[in-house]
Design brief:
It is built from 15 helices and 17 strands.
């Protein structure tokens, strides 16, 4: 691989030593979660009971009423002044502007000298103002649950834990996430209604998997399952649904759409963390994948597909899938097919370093190594052929790993110049989210600082023209965090 994959502004971004990391979407640990999560409560019961569980969080961030005869703080426009602006487009940081916010939206970018009557002024002290970050492959409900907790905790604790992690996610500067599988619907609702604090969630609902596929977390002792037998615990929980044949695929996809999925996640190939499906396996027939694509298309949204191999990638594209998740083993033919069909490539930094998962068995370590070697090539091919590329992390069952979210973005400057990479994690990722079309739960523009966009903003100590290292330590370097025009952190 070239030592200068990206050369914007004549800068060479050299590759360092790469060690492998791999996808964690299909760990068998999910089975442990299933056994505990829904033992005494169905998903419908949870939807009804989440309000009670989240009640202690309600109102923590409510605006204080103003003095008599004056507007409440929340009713006043907010004016950010004295700043350096990265607007999300990838253009260089600029000065000489302010950011005016009214309610949930950015309303204008007035000149630096312009006064705004009645506005609440926030002096940014010459620091960087940028859009909130977006992670397009995040597991909201499953990222921060360790194995022992999954084995021993009751349902209430698990969902309270997910709510706390949602708040931490926001405090790392991530104002939006695309959930890549799991029962996130109720948590999304609680966040939207202000019951808890967290990022915007684009939910996929349960991952759709074939029998023996990447989302089949049953034990071998559970096999075979007769047609009239009840669903497994993982299915009842809403982590994954098993579907074989076009009819079952249609049913399971339609169920997730009914529950509120903004897009559908189908598992079209093997993985590393899962025990039963080899990395090289191809999953779902083209007809089965097409059935899911058509069901999603009838609801004016799309299918994202977990897949690694060229064969699986090409099959998914032929079926109409719009976003390839992972794809680190892609070859030039399959990448050209992505380009020609306008398919997105949602890549993750699967590099075995301090942020990677540790596997005890040699088989999975070997698969992990193959994926990591492919990661380097994948970033090279994505740029060579101009593929629309999203960025995400895919942290799963790793409480310590969730804290690395920003660092996993920052370290990718070995593949991209920092401004291009920051654009990828803001406005480019927002374009990927917008593929949800009519099912988009947040229809205003995201990932940009422009009039009409959601007021999701960060004020940071850092210079994206040099590097993104400041995102590795959000507690120290993110001085202000705003979502929906509401300030959740201010240490200016």
């Amino acid at each position: 691989m070239s030592n200068a994959i990206a050369t914007d502004a004549g800068m060479a971004w050299k590759t360092g030593p790469i060690r492998p990391r791999a996808c964690t979407c299909g760990s068998v640990i999910c089975h442990l979660l299933h056994e505990r999560v829904m033992t005494d409560m169905s998903r419908r019961m949870f939807v009804g009971g989440v309000a009670a569980m989240m009640a202690p969080f309600t109102g923590l961030y409510a605006a204080e009423p103003g003095p008599a005869g004056t507007p409440k703080q929340a009713d006043r426009p907010i004016l950010l002044t004295n700043l350096r602006l990265f607007d999300g487009t990838g253009k260089p940081v600029r000065q000489g502007v302010q950011v005016l916010i009214q309610g949930k939206l950015i309303t204008a970018l007035p000149a630096a000298a312009e006064k705004v009557e009645g506005a609440q002024v926030i002096d940014c002290q010459g620091k960087l103002v940028m859009p909130g970050l977006i992670d397009t492959h995040w597991h909201t409900m499953l990222a921060a649950i360790p194995q022992m907790t999954a084995m021993t905790a009751d349902l209430g604790y698990l969902y309270l834990s997910a709510a706390q992690e949602a708040q931490r996610t926001l405090m790392r500067g991530f104002t939006s996430v695309r959930d890549a599988g799991g029962p996130a619907f109720a948590l999304k609702r609680a966040i939207d209604e202000g019951m808890v604090v967290g990022p915007r969630i684009y939910p996929s609902g349960a991952m759709i998997s074939q029998t023996s596929g990447h989302g089949d977390f049953r034990l071998r002792s559970d096999i075979p399952r007769a047609a009239n037998e009840p669903l497994s615990q993982v299915e009842l929980t809403g982590v994954a649904m098993i579907a074989d044949g076009e009819t079952e695929v249609l049913r399971r996809v339609r169920e997730q759409l009914m529950l509120g999925a903004s897009q559908i996640k189908m598992l079209a190939g093997g993985g590393v963390a899962s025990l039963y499906d080899p990395l090289d396996s191809t999953q779902f027939t083209e007809k089965e994948l097409r059935a899911g694509v058509e069901a999603a298309g009838d609801w004016n949204t799309y299918v994202m597909a977990h897949v690694y191999t060229p064969k699986g990638i090409k099959r998914a594209i032929k079926a109409g899938v719009k976003s390839i998740e992972h794809g680190q083993l892609a070859d030039e033919e399959s990448v050209k097919m992505m380009r020609d069909e306008g398919v997105w490539w949602s890549l993750q930094p699967f590099l075995q370093d301090e942020d990677s998962n540790v596997y005890p068995d040699p088989a999975r370590r070997e698969s992990q190594s193959k994926v990591a070697q492919g990661t380097v090539k994948a970033y090279e091919l994505a740029q060579k052929y101009g593929i629309k590329t999203g960025w995400g992390t895919d942290v799963l069952f790793n409480p310590k790993g969730t804290a690395t979210q920003g660092r996993q973005l920052a370290k990718l400057t070995r593949f991209y110049d920092p401004l291009t990479l920051l654009k990828q994690a803001t406005s480019t990722n927002a374009e990927l989210l917008a593929l949800s079309g009519e099912r988009n739960p947040y229809p205003q523009p995201l990932g940009r600082i422009a009039p009409g966009a959601y007021a999701d903003l960060l004020v940071a100590d850092g210079d994206p023209a040099v590097n993104l290292d400041f995102l590795s330590n959000p507690e120290q370097n993110l001085r202000l965090i705003m979502k929906d025009g509401k300030v959740h952190k201010n240490t200016l």
